[in-house]
Amino acid sequence: MEGADPAFRIMGVVNVTPDSFSDGGLFLDPAAAIAHGRLLESEGAAILDIGGESTRPGSRGVSEADELGRVMPVIDGLVAAGTGAQISIDTSKREVAAVALAAGATYVNDVTAFRHDAGMAGLVAESGADCCLMHMLSDPRTMQIDPRYEDVVSEVKLFLDERMAFAVAEGVAEQRIMLDPGIGFGKTLEHNLELLRRIGEIVALGRPVVIGTSRKSFLGRLTGREVGDRVFGTIATSVLAYERGARVFRVHDVAAVHDALAVTAATVREPWPPTNPTTSSTSSTT
Length: 286
Prior knowledge:
By secondary structure, this protein is of the alpha/beta class. It has a single domain, classed as Dihydropteroate synthase-like (TIM Barrel), CATH 3.20.20. Helix content is 41%, strand content 13%. The protein contains 10 helices and 8 strands. It has an 8-stranded parallel beta sheet with strand order 6-5-4-3-2-1-8-7. Helix 1 links the parallel strand 1 and strand 2. Helix 2 packs parallel to helix 3 and helix 9 packs parallel to helix 10.
């Protein structure tokens, strides 16, 4: 993926929806959404994920026309503004993705992992776009109704491995694929925690792992905080996931998570501050 940060990449969330769980209705106006996207870019987002259909638990789908009407003015505006961030279209509909890609998006974030629309994998292959394949139990309307697994990590890993193999068989270059275990998508609190504990098993599949814990309800259950006050939990889970091998983070609070990961990455990669050969080892720090 060209231009990827060698340590991590942040995917900033730009929801153009009336009903998303955290920011629904805040950015329905295209000008507000474009300004928000530019702000997230300035705060460190390498990818801007533009979504016009909520996938929160219990949500219902929208028509292709409505979804396009929401996302395309934002994508067109970001492209016209000369954004340096990669534009991602968060959709499971082939036609929505096709229009977005033609307008300048270069990334498809499909929460169904190419299961909803049979033509999505072929479109991604033909366009050469990057993509994210996510695990989700059932669909948004029913995914949180008594989700069960024998071993959530093993089952999610098997699913992602199978969907990656499908994508490659359809012509998608493996180096274009990222994998998302789908925190909160058909998982209980314990399922989410187990995935975070053992995220290294998903990393072992060999592709960049995307983590999306931002402001989610399991953080509220752990901390007692409302949606807008869950940035500290988001930071904690992102840092832990980074240390265990995840490298892409889909978040609302870009600046806070970016800075936390920058510090974490510096401790993991090399000593800080870097050695300066022109500085005497006997220099005083008083």
